């Protein structure tokens, strides 16, 4: 099994543990600010339509629909996580889709989305290919919002290089987790992933628990290259008008 397959398969094995960890608030950084950071980054766009890629048990879809009333879809490769999402939200739309199906154009959508999110769901070495496959489903003026591990918080002494690593979930008390391979990227590498997918970084945020605190995550807000170029002069950064985002 290659690293990509091992990554996807770890989530099928970890589904039950993951749903419990999310729903029981067992991941401290989420309560400390990363959940709120991605919700805010999405809601300030006032989306009418929202796609959550690698949605897991569906918390972000539920939260965004509650806040904005938008039309939302969650997709994930784990059938168990999608079942958990549907159970929590029987009226919501959730589909089992593996990233590989999108990259190979065996799966797609007959709609476009104002915001497409990847919340800790882009761990593959081939992230560019997935973003490139998703980009055509972005509405005009839409944004792809990626939240991920901050590379500067995870760089090992003397080693700041793209490489596969392994998460063993040892931070959780129970040992019943399957380790997950994931691809560490430097900040420059994230920039290249986005550019190679035909996207541009419209904004980079570093959410922290308190002003001046160390970043909890890296939040990248991306637009299709041609859209950003055309609208460069009139891009409105949500942070310039925070009151506007309070829905
Ligand atoms: C860390 S979890 C994040 C879940 C969710 N976004 C959240 O914020 O709770 C990573 C998610 O990516 C999904 N994933 C990983 N590789 C995938 C693949 N190849 N195809 C589809 N989903 C995948 C997993 O099933 C898992 O739900």
TrEMBL record:
What does the UniProt keyword field contain?
Methyltransferase, Transferase
Q: Which residues belong to any copy of the Methyltransferase domain?
A: 51-142
In the record, what terms sit under GO molecular function? methyltransferase activity
- InterPro entries xref list: Methyltransf_25, SAM-dependent_MTases_sf
Superkingdom, natural source: Bacteria
Matches recorded under Gene3D superfamilies? Vaccinia Virus protein VP39
- Listed GO biological process terms: methylation
Q: What's this protein's name?
A: Class I SAM-dependent methyltransferase
Say which species the protein is native to: Denitrobaculum tricleocarpae
